[in-house]
Automatic annotation (TrEMBL):
This is Alpha-ketoglutarate-dependent dioxygenase AlkB-like domain-containing protein. InterPro entries: AlkB-like_sf, ALKBH7-like. It comes from the Eukaryota. GO terms for biological process: DNA damage response; fatty acid metabolic process. It comes from Drosophila yakuba (Fruit fly). Its cofactor is Fe(2+). Residues 165-194 are annotated as: Disordered. GO terms for cellular component: mitochondrial matrix. Residues 168-184 have a biased composition (Polar residues).
Amino acid sequence: MIIQNRSPLIGQILRRCHQQAMKINARKDNITAYFGKWPETEQKEFRQHMRIIADFISEPEEQQLHEEIEPYMSRLRYEFDHWDDAIHGFRETERKKWFPKNREVLERVRQVAFDGAIMPYVHILDLAPDGVIKPHVDSTRYCGNTISGISLLSDSVMRLVRTDEQRYQQQSPGTATQPTSQGSEPDAAYRHQPEAPLKNNFYADILLPRRSLYIMSHTARYNFTHEILSKEHSQFRGTLVPKTRRISIICRNEP
């Protein structure tokens, strides 16, 4: 999914994205709420590895992405019994071939979020208004150290809670640490659901505005569970964040 001949327009767009990222970093506290007693070094790493770029795509770009995937997604039923119990009220697919305009958007994601190539199949996750993504850590067997997603159709709140950092690290390309035998999840699981209680722990709530891009890597990727709060609990700094149907266009790199 790498565009070989980058047009001047793409270059201008990438510069715009970089400028947006700088602005977002400058006001990051406006979209991140920290809870609990964070060690200073961990909070610094978290801020580096969990990035949000607001207005990463324009309204017309959101519309063209939606128009490409909607004919297929609308034929699927929302599922409420996912095999790994991590998601309820969802439908999903993967897509390799995209219309040229949307391919340019994904190339921007690659340029901004990844050091190299991304996996050829892009994950599309459609969450119903009453759907929920439970706390989980994506398996190191199926994706590498970075996960990046564009949020379509709705604002939402992502919560990241500190968990066992030794359990889900990627030791080297193609390998990952093995879970301990007691209380471990199957190694083949796509999403692990470790216990990460809020009490006596530290965590962060991240506001994901519609049309934003999140980039979750390294520390944020391995040391924290992540979830999308249900509409009943979708609040940020005490203010309700209405969550309607939400589609994520998710890119990953190779393990």
